[in-house]
Predict the structure of Target of rapamycin complex subunit LST8.
Amino acid sequence: MVRLYDIKSSNPNPIMQFEGHTNNITGVAFHCEGKWMVTSSEDMTVRVWDTRSGQIQRNYQHTHPVNDVVIHPNQGELVSCDRGGNIRIWDLGESKCTHQLVPVEDVSMASVSVASDGSLLAAGNNHGDVYIWRMYQNHDSTTLLPCRVFKAHKDYLTRLLLSPDIKLLATCSADHTVRIWNIDMNEEHLEAIPEPASDPNTPNPNHDTMSQSQHSLNGSTTSTHSTPNPVISGTFSPDPNSRSTGSLTTHSLSASSFRALTDLITHRRPLPCDTVLDNHQRWVWDCAFSADSAYLVTVCSDHYARLWELSTASIIRQYSGHHRGAVCVALNDYSNPP
């Protein structure tokens, strides 16, 4: 159950309750104007709720418990990940999955994050590996281009988050640290992966193929016409209330395809990591950037929330009061519009 409270009111009771999930809820995100929210759950579903009526507007099914869900800045797509290693992109207008990515089969994908301008998608799994894609959008399509895979932590990765200015990537871990990775969109390590040249008469192991026609969610295809797998595209409608004509294509990128792509990108250096926040005593579960990307709040199983100044990697504030581990944090650091 999700309970919604009015923070501007002195009423301590929830103004609305959202019932429907049958297991633990793992993620909540709100539409930019608060008209709807999305939740993910261990019941293997992602649900979109009308915050005014409390009714379910969309119900999307995974095949494994869902760990995280985020709303794309275009407000017309969702990105979710699950314990089976799947990342799925959902088109709200068509109410359908348009992309399925499986970097490593049966390795739980813990967290996903989309850049504030929609240019990057980042994901991290339980092995501490981080995957980054470039996202390109036309008026009717989204194209994903893999550009980076690297080991961020030797232990479980619990959360990752791109900063509002898209210059930093924070990764939280069971190793008691948060690492801050530097992003420069013009640097080599974030260039998209080019298609390798090959003899047209020789099969290329780095070129798994993907049908341009309908793919089922398990990766099977119904068409023999195919294109190189590193470039993945699909259509979306930026207005969640609109309906476009024609069929919508679901594109899948399997674990075997990712292993082939890894041969192309592992020679690239990892993202630079100049800052390690290591004063945590136990697992770090979540983090939140300030609006100017200069500060980070972290929460930990040691019961504390900490406010860090990233330029000095120093703790500015340490908040106590929890009697158990703190596992989730949000920061309201944005000015109200005039």
